[in-house]
Amino acid sequence: MLSAITAALMALSTITFPPGGAPGIVPPPDHITIEVVTVLGSGCPTGTAAVAVSPDNKAFTVTYSDFLAQVGIGALPTDFRKNCQLNLRVNVPQGFTYGIAQADYRGFAHLEAGASGTERANYYFQGMSPTSYKSHSYNGPMSDDWQATDSTEVAAIVYSPCGELRNFNINTELRVAAGTSDPKKTTSFMAMDSTDGSIETTYHFAWKQCT
Prior knowledge:
The chain is an all-beta fold. Helix content is 2%, strand content 49%. It has 1 helix and 12 strands. The strands form 2 sheets. Strands 2, 3, 4, 6, 9, 11 and 12 form a 7-stranded antiparallel sheet that branches. A 5-stranded antiparallel sheet has the order 1-5-10-7-8, with no helix packed on it. β7 and β8 form a beta hairpin. The longest helix is centred in the N-terminal third of the chain and has 4 residues, at 2-5. It starts with a helix and ends with a strand. 44% of the residues are buried.
């Protein structure tokens, strides 16, 4: 599973400064490695989520191939909500630490008139308080790609403590509600994937040098 997980997955986000980090801070010159410790959740069965670091060390991507919530014809009662929790070990060069500055999430949604879909996510470092969930909602009728962007102000970025190796946790969730649509005659769904089996979610690093 680790070899598959080093190949895909991507969520993107944007903030008020370049994705390399706060002004004046450049990414470390040495390569970063990310190890996937655990992948848990109904939205990411074994072998369906993957992580890779960008060549410029400015971001890492997470790719899901089976992350889909749905209601209606063919859906199970539990399919209206799907979630995925990733536990990652990020190995950074000595003298640097990192936070997450921005994240963009992308996928496809088909929502019948009266139905709705929601994507929400948060993250935290092991032993630290989770960030608050950020949610994005979509209403039917809709049958199109969707994209959600979470932004973090420079002063609010949470950094991993210098000199400590703390695992990084990402929680992502998709929900679909039938609303006033008729689930006996229609199907509504929201996916963080695509017809070719992968939609990428990219998390952009903000770097800080340790003293």
